[in-house]
């Protein structure tokens, strides 16, 4: 089993990129890769339950379904703690599979070797 990281820095400000990021994350998880999505900067907003409920790009499944499928496949969503704090977001209402972390957790995951893409 390999490792795969999807780095996502946007949310509703670029719903197309946010959607495609989770399409790729689902493909990686389905390909027997230990997969994480790292949410940073504006992307951390996706960690709040309900935030992505109205995001649906033409030609793709709704973002909330893509995120739920990813979590259901064992994917983990790592959420940048300083980015959440900067935006005043609540840590209490996270989507399934989301964990608030510092940058050291991302480094720990990627350091042994990891393919990655960024959106």
Report the sheet with the most strands, covering strand number, pairing sense and barrel closure: 5 strands, parallel
What's the alpha carbon Rg, rounded to whole Å? 13 Å
CATH fold-level label: Hypothetical Protein Ychn, Chain: A
Compute the number of helices: 4
Outline:
This protein has 119 residues and is an alpha/beta fold. It has four helices and five strands.
Give a topology summary.
Layout: E1 2-8, H1 15-30, E2 33-39, H2 63-72, E3 76-80, H3 81-87, E4 98-101, H4 103-110, E5 115-118
Parallel strand pairs: 1-2, 1-5, 2-3, 3-4
Helix pairs in contact: 1-2
Task: Describe the protein.
The chain is built from four helices and five strands, in the order E-H-E-H-E-H-E-H-E. The mean pLDDT is 96. Helices cover 34% and strands 23% of the residues. With 119 residues, it is α/β, with parallel strands linked by helices. It starts with a strand and ends with a strand. The chain has helices spanning 15-30, 63-72, 81-87, 103-110, and strands at 2-8, 33-39, 76-80, 98-101, 115-118.
């Amino acid at each position: 089993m390999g490792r795969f990281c999807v780095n996502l820095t946007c949310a509703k400000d670029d719903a197309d990129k946010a959607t495609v990021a989770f399409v790729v994350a689902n493909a990686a998880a389905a390909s027997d890769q230990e997969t994480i999505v790292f949410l940073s900067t504006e992307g951390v907003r996706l960690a709040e339950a309900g935030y992505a409920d109205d995001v649906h790009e033409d030609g793709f499944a709704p973002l909330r379904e893509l995120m739920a499928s990813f979590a259901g496949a064992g994917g983990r969503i790592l959420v940048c703690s300083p980015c959440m704090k900067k935006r005043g977001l609540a840590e209490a209402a996270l989507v399934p599979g989301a964990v608030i972390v510092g940058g050291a957790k991302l480094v720990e995951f990627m350091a042994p070797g990891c393919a990655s893409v960024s959106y």
